[in-house]
Amino acid sequence: MSNRITLADVAKLAGVHPGTVSRALSGKTENQVNAATVRRVRRAAKQLGYMPNAMARGLRTRSSMTIGVIVPDLMNPIFPPMVRGIDSYLAPRGFSAFVVNTDGKDAAERTLFESLMERQVDGFIVATGHTDHVLMADALARGVLAVMVNREAHGVSFPSVTGDDARGIHEVVAHLSELGHRRILHLAGPRGFSTSEIRESAFQAACSQTGAAGRVVPTSSYSIDAGQSALDVVLDQGVDGFTAVVAANDLLALGAYHSLRMHGLDCPGDISVVGFNDMPFAGDFLPPMTTVRSPHFEMGVEAARLLLEQIASGQSSAVSVKLPVALVVRGSSGPARRRAIS
Amino acid sequence: MSNRITLADVAKLAGVHPGTVSRALSGKTENQVNAATVRRVRRAAKQLGYMPNAMARGLRTRSSMTIGVIVPDLMNPIFPPMVRGIDSYLAPRGFSAFVVNTDGKDAAERTLFESLMERQVDGFIVATGHTDHVLMADALARGVLAVMVNREAHGVSFPSVTGDDARGIHEVVAHLSELGHRRILHLAGPRGFSTSEIRESAFQAACSQTGAAGRVVPTSSYSIDAGQSALDVVLDQGVDGFTAVVAANDLLALGAYHSLRMHGLDCPGDISVVGFNDMPFAGDFLPPMTTVRSPHFEMGVEAARLLLEQIASGQSSAVSVKLPVALVVRGSSGPARRRAIS
DNA sequence: GTGAAAGCGCTAACAT
DNA sequence: ATGTTAGCGCTTTCAC
């Protein structure tokens, strides 16, 4: 694009050496130069409309002040708040977030990772990935600075920040139990994700703790369609007397809504449904969704904080932060009712 | 971060000059070099795990292969699809999108714009802004390449891509008219935005065309709260016999839902509500929302296409693309019914 | 307190 | 077909 004005131009106008202009404009080095000179340089810079060239600076300083943020898909409503959280922490500190979407594809993720490396990002915030996260494993080996958010990978010692999912699921099961539900179905997330695993085992634990009969049905992805077809299969079998569905996330719960509706079942009249995440607009659904609020914005903030801490210190810390979650009771959960299935 | 391997390292291993490595690896210049050499260089590069340094390359070539994307707020659900659309066009062409959020604040927008300029973006896609868009006006003066999406600015000759909003509003009013609505309220968007203006005047035109009585109530922002409080005011007045609300977007319509519910009114039984945009999950609301589908993803694609075209040609074209929209009838619009308001 | 000079890693004339 | 050279715009050590 345009803007051809360089340090040298400013230096010429101010009648000083380019090096001096650099120092005068820097902030960190501003005190190394005569106050009067600083003013003169500033005036010249403003007059010319000087803007530093971030690529030249970055090349010289080996730092881009940019953080690579890798998410599966911005269209999944939990990610925008997370990205905004990240940005809200980075921006005041002079960093920017560069966000890329993998669509859950490992190949794409690898390519995007490389491309962010080429852009010389100063670190990564990674919200994708399986428990067996090959990319992160060798990112670690390469000495890359990163923090994982919402997901964890086994045996990869990056710091991570997640919600206290197990706690959330326990609260859900307790809530359902109080409403009299004794047979509960868990629409589990897809295999190979830490979120799926943690929520599922918390579900099992909570059920045996409250004495409820828990059944787990896995889904193929965290999506409306996957939730719908998984529940369709169960409902079509026509057996089982469960009265409540605990979905591993809100999208799955929405899929459950659809399936129930298709089968002429009322929620929460016939079957209660509880989601997970409290995604935006969850309270506006039909029925308003009972779910667990995950602090996505705060997760982003915390991840950014952890990463900048690493960047400042130059070393990885491998801490793992677990943020509190909260059950939000709305209209999709109600008293258990005996029900006959065709 | 790590990765200290440069062209020179590869050159040494391959036993050739750095310049040759550059050519061998480039694609555009690959044919200028002996095929055997190319292979040797490639092997050396792979063996060392060489990655080009984008800052060094960009500094030299004066191009960052990056597009700055300025949106108000990624948490507004119309933007993620737009961003994905942009990215889907850019990525295969070697470009990346750098997205920033202004939160509707002019000062933030200016700062972010400068920061993207410093990063040497090759062009802008701008989804923010008033009809009186000061920033864009002087961006134009600076010779910056940009396209506006979803919004237009008066007297600023950047290309723009929008939905055919006027057409959409006409279809809404016709739909309502067929359902027997004769008195219709328009919850207009905030003043100073092209979307607000276009939808409002289309509403007026459509009403007089169908002979319906149209009343316009402006809102303070495109948000749920603004929609709710604007309708609250009308409903609290207790006069007026409108039977339908045409909201300038889905968020406003959702606010209308809330207001209606607070006033003990049923939608669509007492009052029909129609939104605009067909944001994600609009069909899952209570009631499922009748709205106009704006092709946000496609708008992103088109904007990216237009911008890359400008970049390739080096000149601005000032075309204005209007993409088709479609009325999506769901459950929030129904037959007009006589109604008594307290 | 400021000037001089080198160099970050790359590409693109220009030579050969 | 490949080597040489210069330089993109900046920061930073080293002089003075």
From TrEMBL, chains A, B:
<dbReference type="Pfam" id="PF00356">
    <property type="entry name" value="LacI"/>
</dbReference>
<dbReference type="GO" id="GO:0003700">
    <property type="term" value="F:DNA-binding transcription factor activity"/>
</dbReference>
<dbReference type="InterPro" id="IPR010982">
    <property type="entry name" value="Lambda_DNA-bd_dom_sf"/>
</dbReference>
<protein>
    <submittedName>
        <fullName>LacI family transcriptional regulator</fullName>
    </submittedName>
</protein>
<dbReference type="InterPro" id="IPR000843">
    <property type="entry name" value="HTH_LacI"/>
</dbReference>
<dbReference type="GO" id="GO:0000976">
    <property type="term" value="F:transcription cis-regulatory region binding"/>
</dbReference>
<dbReference type="InterPro" id="IPR028082">
    <property type="entry name" value="Peripla_BP_I"/>
</dbReference>
<keyword id="KW-0804">Transcription</keyword>
<dbReference type="InterPro" id="IPR046335">
    <property type="entry name" value="LacI/GalR-like_sensor"/>
</dbReference>
<keyword id="KW-0805">Transcription regulation</keyword>
<keyword id="KW-0238">DNA-binding</keyword>
<dbReference type="Pfam" id="PF13377">
    <property type="entry name" value="Peripla_BP_3"/>
</dbReference>
<feature type="domain" description="HTH lacI-type">
    <location>
        <begin position="5"/>
        <end position="61"/>
    </location>
</feature>
